[in-house]
Write a structure and sequence with these properties.
- The complex is a heterodimer of chains A (351) and B (180).
- Chain A contains 16 helices and no strands.
- By secondary structure, chain A is mainly α.
- Chain B is mainly alpha-helical and 180 residues long.
- Chain B is elongated.
- Chain B contains 6 helices and no strands.
- The chains are: A mainly alpha (351), B mainly alpha (180).
- Chain B: It comes from Camelina sativa (False flax).
- Chain B: This is V-type proton ATPase subunit c''1.
- Chain B: Keywords: Ion transport, Membrane, Transmembrane, Transmembrane helix, Transport.
């Protein structure tokens, strides 16, 4: 019953919700980012991070430090938090938490298949995979030649199996087909997650619907912009859009026929939430679009914490941590390459 | 027997209800007053306790202050015990010839009603204080200036149980059984 979740949520979810809110209090604030932006080298960054929750993960790293090490250790903290929560969760929260990692699994699958196509070593690729998206037999992906084999050999035993029904073809894997496969899988995953949240009901479904709808719309815009000028036909492009969200179905009709960025802007400005995003950029400028979308996403994720007794706080926390790791990566790269003037181009402040 | 015939009920349901012993109603009232109050207190305590334990991992300073929420919930159970004890002192024996007199029935119903009032008022009071206590613990962990302000809300919430106790005790004061 919507509105009365407060009566029974705490039986199974009270402890974990309190833990995730404690983790949220440990996210870096604007003051922390300002300190980090003024660092001269990576050792300074490590020193500043030792005062935050990342301290215990970075303290044993020997100098000289690399940016990849910093990012790896921070991701390790995210994975530890996630596993701690997952092992204590009961249904349906454990299924909800599992859904959060399927996106990373899809990214890892695509990474390995692409890398194999370009003849990279499997071990090297495995090290680059995101730890949250690892599953057994992931290394076997390097053996597959086309999608049917991919499915039959490896993916049928993973949670991604039901998402493959739409992209089982016998075509060989090349760059374009891999991108289409990634987007088809992600579309199926988002729709599945959306249905699952609707089934849970209550505040979880309300907040998650908003967050997932934004994700679906953002992916639709990115697919449109990235496929302008490629061989992707309009019908194929429309097949990659998810069947929920603010843009469904009329926005998708219009986006499918867009041929340049100004037309995309024209379509998006009909929807008030996206009109606010697009109005921040002047005509012809598309580099700022990514950052504008990230800022809007962070704003919505922070709002998820305003309500108690629902599962969306877990999703919001994971996404905010990932954004923080992206910020740290950008800051470390700028500091390491002595380009501190460009730091503010891409850091998204949260609190 | 003669008392029932004089009342002249047309339906058998009405006749059946007044044939239930007033002691049955009193006993059920006393049971509900303590049982449902304790249900409310326990429900409130687990709601606030689980959040408090989780939040105290990252912010250990909140534990001692936020035990007040648990104490407010516990007070609700104590109200139930007190009223149950008061109610059971109101039970007196009457001779069986007077057991179904109007005055006896009235005493039985008064104790029953008092028990229900106290039980359900404490149930919702315990729930209210528990949910606010949970939010209080989580907000205190983020920002310690919020604790006192949320405590004021909890105090208003716990007044609800007190209202129930007051009315219940007044109700039971008129539970006078007929004298021999």
């Amino acid at each position: 019953m919507y509105g009365f979740e407060a009566l029974t949520f705490n039986i199974h979810g009270g402890y974990l919700e309190a833990i995730v809110r404690g983790h949220r209090a440990g996210l870096l604030t604007t003051a922390d980012y300002n300190n980090l932006c003024q660092c001269e080298n990576l050792d300074d960054i490590k020193m500043h991070l030792s005062a935050t929750k990342y301290g215990s993960y970075l303290q044993n790293e020997p100098s000289p430090l690399h940016t990849t090490t910093i990012v790896e250790k921070c991701t390790l903290k995210l994975v530890d938090d996630y596993k701690h929560m997952l092992c204590q969760a009961t249904e349906p929260m454990s299924t909800f938490l599992e859904y959060i990692r399927y996106g990373h699994m899809i990214d890892n699958v695509v990474l390995i298949v692409t890398g194999t196509l370009h003849e990279r070593d499997v071990q090297e690729l495995l090290e680059k995979c995101h730890p949250l998206g690892m599953f057994d037999s992931i290394a076997t992906l390097a053996v597959a030649q086309n999608m049917r084999e991919l499915y039959r050999l490896v993916l049928v035993d993973t949670p991604l199996a039901p998402y493959f029904s739409e992209c089982l073809t016998s075509e060989d894997l090349d760059d374009m087909n891999i991108e289409i496969m990634r987007n088809t899988l992600y579309k199926a995953y988002l729709e599945d997650f959306y249905k699952f949240c609707q089934k849970i009901g209550g505040a979880t479904s309300e907040i998650m619907s908003d967050l997932l709808a934004f994700e679906a719309d953002r992916r639709a815009v990115n697919i449109t912009i990235n496929s302008i000028g490629t061989e992707l036909t309009r019908e194929d492009r429309k097949k990659l859009y998810s069947n929920f969200g603010l843009l469904y179905p009329y926005g998708h009709e219009e986006l499918a026929i867009c041929e340049d960025i100004d037309q995309v802007r024209g379509v998006m400005e009909k929807y008030p939430p996206y009109q606010a995003i697009f109005s921040k950029m002047s005509y012809g400028e598309s580099q700022m679009l990514d950052k504008a979308f990230y800022e809007e996403e962070v704003r919505r994720l922070c709002l998820a914490f305003e309500q108690q007794f629902h599962y969306a706080v877990f999703f919001a926390y994971m996404r905010l941590r990932e954004q923080e790791i992206r910020n740290l990566m950008w800051i470390s790269e700028c500091v390491a390459q002595n380009q501190k003037s460009r730091i503010h181009d891409s850091v998204v402040y949260m609190f | 027997m003669s008392g029932v015939v004089a009342l002249g009920y047309a339906s058998s349901w009405g006749a059946a209800l007044v044939r239930i012993s007033p002691y049955t109603f009193s006993a059920i009232g006393i049971a509900i007053s303590i049982g449902v109050s304790v249900l409310g207190a326990a429900w409130g305590i687990y709601i606030t306790g689980s959040s408090l334990i989780g939040a105290a991992i990252e912010a250990p300073r909140i534990t001692s202050k936020n035990l007040i929420s648990v104490i407010f919930c516990e007070a609700v159970a104590i109200y139930g015990v007190i009223v149950a004890i008061i109610l059971q002192t109101k039970l007196e024996s009457v001779p069986s010839s007077k057991m179904y007199d109007a005055e006896s029935l009235r005493a039985g119903y008064a104790i029953f009603a008092s028990g229900i009032i106290v039980g359900f008022a404490n149930l919702v009071c315990g729930l209210c204080v528990g949910i606010i206590g949970s939010s209080c613990a989580l907000s205190d962990a983020q920002n310690s200036t919020l604790f006192v302000k949320i405590l004021v809300i909890e105090i208003f919430g716990s007044a609800l149980g007190l209202f129930g106790v007051i009315v219940g005790i007044i109700m039971s004061a008129q539970a006078t059984w007929p004298t021999k």
